[in-house]
Write a structure and sequence with these properties.
Layout lengths: L1 E3 L2 E3 L3 E3 L8 H11 L3 E3 L16 E5 L2 E4 L21 E6 L4 H17 L1 H6 E7 L16 H9 L6 E5 L5 H10 L4 E4 L3 E4 L14 E6 L3 H15 L2 E5 L5 H9 L2 E6 L1 H6 L2 H17 L3 H4 L2 H4 L1
Helix pairs in contact: 2-4, 4-5, 5-6, 7-9
Length: 302
């Protein structure tokens, strides 16, 4: 058991945004069978957005993928009758194309929460997606407004706010803006924008052109970015980026992550990877006689 933003989590292992479909019965099944400490929901915007046309996901090499779904989602009102009753927390991912729109999404969620017991009880954190590279005007396009967005959202919700950022040159600076605006923590890292070409016509393979690279090929980048933000602010971090093994998870925890998101590993190997990573990590702690609190940030404090 550990606490993040004052909230209890069974262990550090959660599912990253965009992995579990926004279907409450399916979420219940995943919670019951694989016991993630939390599921981060698919990013929701004020109104529905159509995903980009296929192909939207390609495998680059072993454990490395690139996607451009484009934040396709049914909109925040799709949560109106949402019911997740299983024993795992939910993290609500929010996006938009302006300060005002993102604030409106959160305000609408607060309205839905007043009449939906499941949303009141299960959603523990709001995560602001200011970093997706796959839709113009959204995600990373809004990162320049990090301070204003975080301030506005924090003013209309009592839930702790985390801001999800990408692996950029100014990530440490933006993390500071988020914390200044009232964020309780930072989520690191989102995907890295890349490009893959068809070898016959030499055109982009993905319909959108560019896409977000995820998986093993960005893991060490995630380690470095999380390390730098934790070293600068000693803040709470939800870490992710190419975690395929318990050793990968340990590395992110050692540089400051309190929770570890699993995403591409699930796409590549299935939900069973959650159980495998948990078992390996717990065995390591037991063999070393360690508590997780002693491991968080140990690679930065040395």
């Amino acid at each position: 058991m550990l606490k993040v933003a004052g909230i209890e989590f069974k262990d550090p292992f959660i599912i990253s945004s965009g992995i579990v479909p926004l279907v409450d019965k399916f979420m219940n099944k995943i919670c019951e069978k694989y016991l993630p400490s939390a599921i981060t929901m698919k990013t929701l915007t004020l109104n529905a957005l159509e995903p980009h046309k296929p192909p939207t996901v390609i495998k680059l090499r072993d454990g490395c993928y690139m996607n451009a779904i484009g934040l396709g989602n049914p909109g925040i009102d799709s949560l109106e009758g949402f019911q997740v009753k299983a024993d795992c927390n939910l993290i609500l991912s929010i996006g938009g194309n302006s300060v005002g729109e993102i604030k409106k999404v959160v305000e609408r969620f607060e309205e839905l929460r007043t009449t939906n017991k499941a949303l009141r009880e299960k959603v523990k954190i709001i995560e602001l997606n200011l970093s997706s590279p796959n839709r113009k005007g959204y995600g990373e396009s809004t990162s320049k407004f990090t301070l204003d967005i975080t301030k506005e959202v924090s003013s209309v919700t009592s839930l702790p706010v985390f801001v999800k950022l990408g692996p950029w040159d100014n990530t440490v600076e933006l993390a500071g803006k988020a914390l200044e605006g009232g964020a309780k923590g930072i989520t690191l890292i989102n995907t890295l924008k890349g490009l893959a070409l068809d070898r016959e016509e030499f055109k982009p393979i993905l319909s959108y052109g560019t896409g977000g690279i995820s998986g093993k090929c960005i893991h060490q980048l995630a380690v470095r970015v999380i390390h730098d933000v934790y070293k600068e602010y000693n803040t709470e971090i939800i870490g992710m980026g190419g975690v395929f093994t318990w050793e990968d998870a340990l590395e992110l925890i050692a540089v400051g992550a309190r929770l570890v998101g699993l995403g591409t590993a699930i796409i590549d190997r299935g939900y069973e990877v959650i159980l495998e990573i948990r078992e390996g990590f717990n065995t390591y702690l037991k063999e070393k006689g360690l508590k997780i609190e002693k491991v968080i940030g140990i690679g930065v404090r040395k």
